[in-house]
Amino acid sequence: MEGKNYTVVTEFILMAVTRNPYLRAMLFIAFLLLYLFTLLGNICIITVVLMNRNLHTPMYIFLSNLSFFDIVYSSTTVPKMMAGLVMEVSKIHVKNCIIQIHFFHFFGCTEALLLTTMSYDRYVAICNPLRYNTIMSKSVCLQLISSCWIVSFAYSLTHTILTSMLPFCKLNQVSHFFCDIKPLLNLACADTSLNETLVILITGFIAVSTFCLIFLSYALIGAHLMKIRSFQERRKAFSTCTSHLTVVLLYYGPLTTRFLRPATTDSLEQDRQTAVLYTIITPVLNPIIYALRNQEVKMAVKSKIWGLKVVQN
């Protein structure tokens, strides 16, 4: 572009979820209610874990961290998505767009690593119950959580730096409800092959490796449970994993192929469709799943709300 006149983009225009005025009003109300429920449900879990000493174990420490990241992960994108439904034109400054990309990938990656850590916790609890307190001590638990934060920050910072180095000119309409890497690559006035390769390699490696580690943990758990003769004991042991397994399937379902597709028009359209699922629906379902499938959480919530005494089995 040397020697040519071009306009440097300072603001991006974000796409609205729909252009239909009636649907925009309906979706705004729906997104607002779901977002508020996300905040309420996850804050409730964090509060219950903090206030109930019986839940001060690695499993629930990980759960409270997961609830925290559900809140911030959803808060990174949903408010801007709702703003796009009520404003004629939803604009965002280039710097703020880059910041949104950073935190979106930081929180998303941390959640994936936390789910992997929680699967390891379930493996130790079921397959090595006598050594559980030794292996999953508080210091080890904090080290695992810290590692999730550090790895995720490094991963997100890599994408943030490379994206911020791209020049943007002329085109400024982002083909998404919020700022993400792929839509921005289509607007860059430079070669983005390196960025696209890193999105596929780094993000793909983290997604596939964490999913494989979770699968390995549950494969070992399944093999161990098959050795237990009592059906009731097998059922009781596996029941502690069902909540986590359900959340894993909800999380990895839409994300498995999301970053492994090239940034074509069709893939971006699919990304917009799945974005609603993993930014709004999944964070809402997580506290519901853990509250309904986990007896200790249900009893702890009841004890705080109605003053019932939690009975330990």
Task: Provide a descriptive summary of the structure in words.
- The protein has 313 residues and is mainly α.
- The chain has one domain: Rhodopsin 7-helix transmembrane proteins (Rhopdopsin 7-helix transmembrane proteins).
- Helix content is 73%, strand content 3%.
- It is built from 10 helices and 3 strands.
- The protein has a 3-stranded mixed sheet with strand order 2-1-3.
- The chain is globular.
- The C terminus is likely disordered.
Quick structural summary:
By secondary structure, the chain is mainly alpha-helical.
What's the SSE blueprint?
Layout lengths: L10 E4 L6 H31 L6 H29 L3 E4 H34 L4 H4 L2 H27 L8 E2 L6 H5 L7 H34 L4 H25 L9 H29 L1 H12 L7
CATH class: Mainly Alpha
Task: Specify the helix fraction band.
Answer: over 70%
Class derived from helix and strand content: mainly alpha
Number of domains: 1
Q: Which CATH architecture would you pick? A: Up-down Bundle
The CATH topology name reads Rhopdopsin 7-helix transmembrane proteins
Instruction: Give the mean pLDDT.
Output: 82
Give me the count of strands: 3
- In which order are the strands of the major sheet placed? 2-1-3
Which runs of at least 5 residues are low in confidence (pLDDT < 50)? 308-313
Shape: globular
